[in-house]
């Protein structure tokens, strides 16, 4: 089942917004004109990534400073699991997720 999150026309560079889908908090962001969808939780201690800083292609968790490379989600230096990236789906003029 397709769950729409946003209209494609709204996905400009720098876009960032959280969504609740089936009890999970998801973060949709646009980096290098590429939409990325991930679980809105740092794998280190569970902090929300909605307020993480983004410098180039590095997403830095505000709580403990853990950094992740985007779009891969791989941690930069810490022995930490990578980000949980989800596959986006498209239907009509919307981006979303298949659940």
From TrEMBL:
<dbReference type="InterPro" id="IPR017941">
    <property type="entry name" value="Rieske_2Fe-2S"/>
</dbReference>
<protein>
    <submittedName>
        <fullName>Rieske iron-sulfur protein</fullName>
    </submittedName>
</protein>
<keyword id="KW-0408">Iron</keyword>
<keyword id="KW-0411">Iron-sulfur</keyword>
<dbReference type="GO" id="GO:0051537">
    <property type="term" value="F:2 iron, 2 sulfur cluster binding"/>
</dbReference>
<keyword id="KW-0001">2Fe-2S</keyword>
<keyword id="KW-0479">Metal-binding</keyword>
<dbReference type="Pfam" id="PF00355">
    <property type="entry name" value="Rieske"/>
</dbReference>
<dbReference type="InterPro" id="IPR036922">
    <property type="entry name" value="Rieske_2Fe-2S_sf"/>
</dbReference>
<dbReference type="GO" id="GO:0046872">
    <property type="term" value="F:metal ion binding"/>
</dbReference>
<feature type="domain" description="Rieske">
    <location>
        <begin position="1"/>
        <end position="97"/>
    </location>
</feature>
